[in-house]
């Protein structure tokens, strides 16, 4: 049965003369079992779905066959438009597509539905896309994201405190989201085969820390991880602030590294930084 999906993908590639573009991080998923698992775990029936980088549309058609209320796909590569038009002719009432770079796309243009994102993301946009979506959730109130990413990216996002993979990405994504690994995917599930394994993750918003200044928080996290091997005090010395006072107020040991500070520790640092900055320089 798996072979049928692979043949179907190869037929689409041949029919429309489609060629995976390495510069766009394109690897086309053909494994029927993986596609079914993604769709089943996403719960697409009667949901408004957005898919990023549909490519030949194998996952796309599976989402539609499983009775999504609506499906919008956003594809950067216009060579796939002919096939997307064909899909639209079969699903006129609940399918649409946009030829656009999702990293630059203005989501304010969309209706404010509670979308689910279900995507096999192109490898080269996985991190910027995820960071963008967690930033703009107040603009587009997405319900959850089920995304295929590189296994290495999934491990960074889900990394535990104090490990080598724990860093800016882990903190920014987990600040107001729960993240769960759903399944690992082997290179043989794709055409062409990538050199790395992939992982499907689910990101669900939890709105735990909604009153913090996200811009200041991100600045603090980025500064603290600017040189991983340095003590947190040395990294924060880049800022125009009394670092010793900042860390004392935040109950943070100045001699530890950023990888040993949890999310609540970074929140304390960012909030105290904001207050000290106002005292020293007024509103900033």
Description:
The protein is of the alpha/beta class and 284 residues long. The protein folds into two domains: 2-205, Rossmann fold, CATH 3.40.50; 214-281, Helicase, Ruva Protein, domain 3 (Orthogonal Bundle), CATH 1.10.8. Helix content is 38%, strand content 17%. The protein has eleven helices and nine strands. It has helices at 2-15, 32-42, 58-65, 81-90, 126-135, 151-157, 168-174, 214-224, 232-236, 243-249, 263-281; strands at residues 28-29, 48-52, 70-75, 95-99, 116-120, 144-150, 177-185, 190-191, 198-205. Strands 4-3-2-5-6-9-7 form a seven-stranded mixed sheet. A two-stranded antiparallel sheet has the order 1-8. Helix 5 (126-135) links the parallel strand 5 (116-120) and strand 6 (144-150). Helix 8 crosses helix 11. The radius of gyration is 21 Å and the shape is elongated. 37% of the residues are buried.
């Amino acid at each position: 049965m798996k072979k049928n999906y692979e043949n179907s993908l190869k037929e689409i590639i041949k029919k429309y003369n489609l060629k995976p573009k390495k510069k766009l991080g394109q690897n086309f998923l053909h494994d029927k079992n993986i596609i079914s698992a993604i769709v089943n775990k996403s719960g697409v029936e009667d949901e408004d779905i957005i898919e990023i980088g549909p490519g030949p549309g194998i996952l796309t058609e599976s989402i539609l066959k499983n009775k999504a209320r609506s499906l919008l796909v956003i594809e950067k590569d216009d060579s796939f438009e002919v096939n997307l038009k064909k899909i639209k002719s079969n699903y006129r009432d609940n399918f649409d597509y946009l030829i656009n770079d999702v990293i630059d796309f203005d989501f304010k243009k969309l209706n404010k539905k509670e979308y689910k994102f279900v995507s096999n993301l192109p490898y080269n946009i996985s991190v910027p896309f995820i960071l963008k979506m967690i930033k703009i959730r107040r603009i587009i109130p997405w319900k959850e994201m089920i995304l295929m990413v590189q296994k290495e990216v999934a491990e960074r996002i889900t990394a535990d405190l104090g490990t080598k993979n724990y860093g800016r990405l882990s903190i920014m994504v987990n600040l107001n989201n729960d993240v769960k690994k759903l399944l690992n995917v082997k290179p043989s599930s794709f055409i062409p085969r990538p050199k790395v394994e992939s992982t499907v993750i689910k990101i669900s918003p939890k709105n735990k820390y909604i009153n913090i200044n996200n811009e200041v928080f991100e600045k603090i996290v980025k500064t603290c991880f600017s040189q991983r091997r340095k003590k947190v005090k040395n990294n924060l010395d880049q800022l125009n602030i009394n670092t010793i006072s900042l860390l004392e107020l935040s109950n943070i040991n100045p001699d530890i590294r950023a990888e040993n500070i949890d999310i609540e520790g970074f929140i304390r640092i960012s909030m105290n930084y904001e207050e000290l900055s106002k005292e020293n320089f007024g509103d900033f």
